[in-house]
Amino acid sequence: MPRTLVMGILNVTPDSFSDGGLFADTDAAIAHGLALVSDGADIIDVGGESTRPDSDRVDEKTELARVLPVVRALVDAGATVSVDTTRASVADASLTAGATWINDVSGGLADPAMLGIVAARGGSYITMHWRGHAREMGANAVYDDVVADVARELAACRDHALAAGIDPGRLVLDPGIGFAKTAEHNWTILQRWDALEDLGFPLLLAVSRKRFLGSLLGTADDPRPPAGRDVATAHLSAHFAARGVWGVRVHDVRSTVDAIATAERMGRA
Ligand code: PMM
User: Fold this and answer.
1) 56: domain range?
2) Is any ligand 1 atom within 6 A of the Cβ of residue 9?
3) Which residues of 181-218 are buried (b: 16+ CB within 10 A; e: fewer)?
4) Gap from CA of 268 to ligand 1 centroid (Å)
5) Ligand 1: nearest atom to the Cα of 251
6) Is 249 noted as a catalytic residue in this protein?
7) Domain tally for the chain?
8) Ligand 1, from 83, 105, 154, 252: best to mutate by most atoms within 8 Å of Cβ?
């Protein structure tokens, strides 16, 4: 197995849940992206639209203005860049600017042009289990059997991506931890990861600083604040690296890189 890849999160937004506003300025965002690379990130995931529950959508022009200069600068510096977007136009412009990956939290559902554009451009694509934009997702956290339902809906995303012509060697699946899911749903999915492995594609683990970790470390009503969730994040990174997950998407790259290196060394018999 190749080593689990570490995707460093770079939110160029004023309102993301854990690092909102810190890197909203282009120069600060570029500097932070370069710092993530020097901490050991393999891919920098640049996002210009917050997916925080209850956040409003940004318009296309704003999203492009946030994302493109950062993508160009990081690509020029030699980084591998992913762009976290649900818009085909942003994906298209980002691939032109040198991005390798499109990370679409809507699994191709938000914009009907997305899958065709990524396929035509030969982009690499992360498709995530999704049940609606931020304002709608809380109400959609209803499942008969969360593992079976998420696996089935994610399989449909996989099949749509392949049918649109996305290269099977450039496709990664993500169950969308925290998206239209309660803390209990998230833990159940993580505990029954084999159901996702059965989908036959590389998987991305994206748990970093999410609220279910805050509830675990504090209480549901008084969760530990996001910056205090990095040890729990790194632990899950190591746990899933040991079972061969393709990648992990994290805010604090250093702690996850160290945890994965340690797990990898332990696994070398
Ligand atoms: N979560 C967030 C944003 N983008 N992308 C993927 N593929 N999977 C996720 O779970 C995911 C994502 C929300 O977290 P952030 O606001 O810290 O970026």
Assistant:
1) 7-205
2) yes
3) bbbebbebbbebbebbbebebbbbbbbbbbbbbbbbee
4) 31
5) 17
6) yes
7) 1
8) 105
Q: What is the mean pLDDT of each run of 10 residues along the chain (269 residues)?
A: 90 73 82 97 96 82 96 98 98 98 97 98 98 88 97 98 98 97 98 98 98 98 97 98 97 98 91
The reply to whether the predicted model has a pTM over 0.90 is yes
| Residue 11: strand pairing partners | 47
Is residue 157, in this structure, part of any structural domain at all? yes
pLDDT attached to residue 138: 85
Give the pLDDT score at 1: 58
> Is residue 233 within 8 Å of 213, Cβ to Cβ?
yes
Query: What ligand 1 atom has the least distance to the C-alpha of 206?
Result: 10
Q: Is residue 241 assigned to a domain? A: no
The CB of 124 under 6 Å from ligand 1? The reply is no
